[in-house]
Design brief:
The chain is an alpha/beta fold and about 725 residues long. Helices cover about 65% and strands about 10% of the residues. It starts with a strand and ends with a helix. The structure holds adenosine-5'-triphosphate (ATP).
Length: about 725
């Protein structure tokens, strides 16, 4: 199993030195002080020995080549042990070779490596214990330490025995389990503390989340309420506005119309040409009538005067007429008149001659008349008759005029009556119109107020629209975008406006409640979920920890049982071998290992039940050695001779290594105190042991050397450096001396 030992800079081995162990037993020989024990110590060192004392040093520096006159000191001591792992004596390492290396530096720093990978000391120890190479060094018996096990106290002895029995691996496992258990319990405490710590936080977050959910519920409610409310309100406002605008247009049109009508009427009213015409007509008819009447009155008066004058003239003419001449003349004239009248009815050409004849006759009469009436008395008559004639003519003329005037008066009257009638008719018309104007004014006022009302309504609606926009913004802020995601309506529901007002109130109420509850933010939920997840994780972890704690406790218990069992069995086996080897060495007698008597006084009591502590004490009881030499009554180890002591300890060491053979056993001059006979027996045992463990014996003993397959000679020159060489048996005997 042991293949090689490589030493460099360690103690006297300044140069790299390699020892091959291809034989079951290897002997290292050489003069005193050449460095043989340093080889054994190199093993100890590489296997992780922590005691400087057992390597004969005070400080780590003492392990490093200190230098000599001819060779400078080293800064590093390194030793590597190479094992054959084909049989997987190190089950954890899947390589055919396992190299365990340790180096130490002048600052005291140690480095360990397994197959070139840096590891901790503990890793080395665990690896070795698995291969039954314990740390108590029962497989390396240093010079003069053969009886170490005899000198050790019971507890140290037990440790050595446990080590030899390969219980260290159980111990390690147990310690590891205990450490794990301790860590697990610490973790449990930590996790529990954490859980206690986060519990109020979770409660707080839970409340927050519930609040958030309540808020969200309210927000959803608000959004739903808003959707209906806004959809209706949007359409309502649009339709109302349309209605109002339409009504306004209608009212405005009517107003314009009635206003135009009124203006037209006013114009007619202020320039009443027709009325004036009527008045003027009446007035002119009246004036005409008056004029004609006055004229007639004047005519009447003139007629009266003429009648009066005619009366006087007539009276006077009667007297004149009585004059005969006047009478003749009149008769002539009358006859002439008739003649003229006759002539005028004749045809035109004849008439001219006849008229000329009549006129000639008339000229004669008139000339005769004037020659007759050349005297005043004649004139007078003529004058009087002339006057009556004239007056008669005048009277006839006036009478004709009067008739004419009478006709004119009648006509004027008719005209006036007509004018009056026309005026009256006109007046009737304008009264009707006045009524209409009043009605129109009323209409105008009505339409004006209608226009004003509709304008006010339009304004109100635009205010409401603005307010709705604000409401929407608020709803969006409080209820989220959902509050505004609704399908626009095309038709208003058949319902009372009050219903919509109720909706508005409901929306406002919900807004207030959403505000009251408040958000808190989405992150609360994630925080809560995280916290719950963490709490669940911790709970699971606690469960896992509890499970692993149970497992570990079980494991520890199992390991304890195993330990106890293996120990008892091992002890029995060691004892069997021990007595055998002892008898072999001493030619009889007996020896055995006994557990310390730690019987508790209470145990005498039948009802005694040992407590945990005393159980533990019993389990850890130390080991005593009892020997019985043949033919001697020696009880105490102290009473044995040096050689006897050496034999006893060798017997024990061999017995121990038989039960659980270590891969190798190093015996540094264990045979020093033996006489020839015992040296032979020792040699026999070495051969026996070499069947199970590789043996490396450092010896000056010829008998021992003779049993080794390989012999190494160690020498030290003037330079203080140990040198190694393979030697033949005869050379070895020489070298050793
Ligand atoms: P013996 O047969 O007397 O037991 P040995 O062959 O076992 O002797 P060791 O005890 O192995 O000899 O070697 C001791 C030698 O090693 C001494 O000469 C000592 O000076 C030398 N030595 C020990 N430590 C160092 C060191 N750090 N540097 C150099 N030499 C050292």
């Amino acid at each position: 199993m042991l293949k090689r030992l490589e030493i460099a800079g360690f103690k006297s081995f300044a140069r790299k030195t390699v020892l091959d162990f291809s034989s079951a037993a290897t002997a290292i020989v050489g003069p005193n002080g050449s460095g043989k024990s340093n080889v054994a110590e190199a093993f100890r060192f590489a296997l992780g020995e922590q005691s400087m004392k057992s390597m004969r040093g005070k400080r780590s520096e003492d392990l490093i080549w200190a230098g000599s006159n001819s060779m400078a000191r080293s800064n590093r001591a390194a030793v590597a042990i190479v094992f054959d792992n084909k049989k997987r004596i190190f089950p954890k390492i899947d390589f055919d070779e396992v190299t365990i290396e340790r180096a130490v530096f002048r600052d005291g720093q140690s480095e360990y490596a397994i197959n070139g990978t840096k590891v901790r000391l503990r890793d080395v120890q665990e690896l070795l214990s698995a291969a039954n190479i314990g740390e108590t060094g029962h497989h390396i018996i240093s010079q003069g330490e053969a009886d170490r096990i005899l000198l050790a106290n019971p507890r140290e002895r037990r440790a050595m025995l446990e080590d030899a029995l390969g219980l260290k691996i159980f111990e390690f496992k147990k310690q590891e389990a205990e450490r794990k258990l301790e860590r697990t319990e610490e973790n449990v405490a930590q996790v529990e503390a954490l859980r206690r710590e986060i519990a109020p936080h979770i409660r707080f977050l839970k409340k927050q989340v519930e609040r958030l959910e309540r808020a969200e519920e309210l927000m959803r409610e608000l959004a739903t309420a808003c959707q209906t409310y806004f959809a209706i309100e949007d359409l309502y406002l649009v339709e109302e506005k349309k209605k109002a605008e339409k009504a306004k247009v209608v009212a405005s049109e009517r107003l314009a119309q009635v206003t135009a009508e009124l203006v037209a009427f006013d114009e007619r009213n202020t320039n009443d040409v027709e009325g004036m015409k009527h008045a003027e007509g009446i007035r002119s008819a009246e004036r005409e009538l008056e004029r004609v009447m006055q004229e007639r009155a004047a005519l009447s008066r003139e007629l009266g005067r003429i009648e009066g004058a005619l009366d006087g003239a007539k009276k006077r003419s009667v007297q004149v007429a009585r004059d005969p001449y006047v009478k003749v003349s009149r008769d002539d004239l009358s006859a002439l008149m008739d003649e003229v009248s006759k002539q005028t009815e004749l045809p035109d050409t004849a008439a001219v001659e006849a008229v000329r004849a009549a006129l000639t006759s008339l000229k004669g009469i008139v000339t005769a008349f004037f020659s007759r009436f050349a005297s005043p008395s004649d004139d007078y008559l003529a004058e009087e008759e002339n006057t009556v004639f004239t007056l008669e003519n005048e009277k006839a003329s006036l009478a004709g005029k009067d008739t004419e005037l009478e006709q004119q008066i009648d006509a004027a009257r008719v005209k006036l009556t007509k004018a009056r009638e026309a005026s009256m008719a006109y007046d009737e018309t304008s009264r009707e119109q006045r009524h209409r104007v009043l009605a129109m004014a009323e209409t105008k006022a009505h339409e004006e107020s209608a226009v004003t009302r509709e304008e006010a309504r339009i304004h109100e609606l635009s205010m409401l629209t603005e307010e709705l926009t604000r409401e929407k913004a608020e709803a969006m802020a409080l209820g989220g975008a959902a509050a505004l995601s609704y399908v626009p309506l095309t038709e208003l529901p058949q319902e009372d406006r009050k219903t919509q007002e109720d909706r508005k109130r409901q929306v406002e109420r919900l807004k207030i409640r959403v505000e009251e509850v408040g958000g808190g933010g989405e992150e609360v939920r994630t925080e809560y979920q995280d916290a719950v997840a963490r709490e669940e994780f911790l709970a699971r972890e606690l469960e896992d920890l509890a499970t692993s704690a149970v497992g570990l406790r079980e494991l520890i218990k199992e390991l304890d049982t195993e330990l106890q069992k293996t120990f008892s069995e091992g002890l029995a086996k060691v004892n069997a071998s021990f007595t055998e080897f002892f008898a072999l060495m001493f030619g009889g007698g007996n020896a055995k290992l006994v557990l310390e008597d730690i019987t508790m006084p209470e145990e005498e009591d039948e009802e005694y039940v040992p407590d945990e502590e005393s159980k533990l004490k019993r389990a850890r009881a130390g080991i005593e050695i009892s020997v019985g030499l043949p033919k001697k009554r020696v009880q105490s180890l102290m009473q044995l001779s040096g050689g006897e002591r050496a034999l006893t300890s060798i017997a024990l060491i061999f017995a121990m290594s038989q039960v659980n053979p270590p891969p190798f056993l190093i015996l540094d001059e264990t045979d020093a105190a033996l006489d020839e006979a015992n040296s032979r027996r020792y040699g026999d045992m070495i051969e026996e042991l070499a069947k199970k463990s590789q043996l490396i014996v450092i010896s000056h003993n010829r008998e021992t050397m003779s049993r080794a397959g390989i012999l190494y000679g160690v020498t030290m020159g003037a330079d203080g450096v140990s040198k190694l060489l393979s030697v033949k048996f005869e050379e070895a005997v020489t070298v050793a001396k």
